[in-house]
Inverse folding.
């Protein structure tokens, strides 16, 4: 019999095969309040972090065709920002495993007039339903730490990216500023689950989210994983004292 492989779900150790179902429950439960919670939890800072991501994506301002795949794109926040920054040829595919997050995203796209530029498709980052070399850029924001088999998701991102193009990953990282680390820990574990409970009614979902940040690999180790997936010129930039890091790798 094959040995059971375990992984982390927040602080818990769970069979690898069970993690995705648990993650799906979290995002099903918070989908309707997800964008509001992002603003509340980050004090609006997630906007600046996502702006840095969009600047790095650098969609053409002209009508030149440019296709972005936003993995674990949820309710479309990154997709809308890229479309608004780009020209008439910019198209974004939001791929997410969670139907509820995607359905909120479709409603928002219709409200903002982005139905033609942004497409929402259900799919697993570990097994993408797209041909090799089909996108000009692949992004994933605050999504990779939720994926059970990170290596598979990175290999898939590499596979679907065109040669000479860039992969960008925004993710919570590790705070390395003395003093700020203690404050951040206190805020994460004492404040966020309480605010999450008040706004979404689901304290455990936010308990999982903060614990999953602690379990995520340190930025150098994660950069190594990106390199192992095949990317080159791999680098990362810490933001807000290391609360978040923007990772980058090129398919050369
Ligand atoms: C914290 S949200 C990030 C949403 C969006 N990228 C943003 O920054 O607002 C994480 C997302 O990852 C998605 N997700 C988790 N596991 C996934 C997988 N295996 N494949 C694709 N999406 C996944 C969840 O459904 C959820 O929408």
């Amino acid at each position: 019999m094959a040995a059971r492989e375990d992984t982390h779900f927040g602080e818990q150790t769970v069979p690898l095969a069970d993690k995705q179902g648990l993650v799906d429950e979290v995002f099903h439960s918070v989908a309707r309040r997800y964008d509001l919670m992002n603003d509340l939890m980050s004090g609006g800072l997630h906007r600046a972090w996502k702006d840095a991501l969009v600047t790095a994506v650098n969609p053409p301002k002209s009508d030149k065709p440019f296709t972005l795949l936003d993995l674990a794109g949820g309710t479309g926040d990154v997709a809308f920002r890229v479309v608004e920054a780009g020209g008439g040829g910019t198209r974004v595919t939001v791929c997410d495993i969670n139907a509820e997050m995607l359905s909120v995203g479709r409603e928002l796209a219709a409200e903002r007039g982005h139905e033609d530029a942004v497409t929402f498709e259900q799919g697993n980052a570990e097994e993408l339903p797209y041909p090799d070399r089909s996108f000009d850029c692949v992004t994933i924001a605050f999504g990779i730490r939720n994926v059970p088999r990170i290596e598979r998701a990175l290999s898939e991102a590499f596979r679907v990216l065109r040669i000479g193009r860039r992969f960008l990953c925004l993710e919570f990282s590790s705070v390395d500023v003395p003093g700020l680390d203690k404050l951040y820990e206190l805020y994460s574990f004492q404040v966020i689950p309480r605010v999450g409970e008040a706004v979404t009614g689901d304290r455990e979902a936010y308990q999982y989210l903060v614990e999953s940040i602690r379990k995520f690999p340190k930025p150098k180790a994660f950069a190594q994983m990106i390199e192992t997936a095949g990317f080159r010129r791999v680098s990362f930039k810490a933001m807000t004292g290391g609360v978040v890091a923007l990772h980058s790798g090129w398919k050369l």
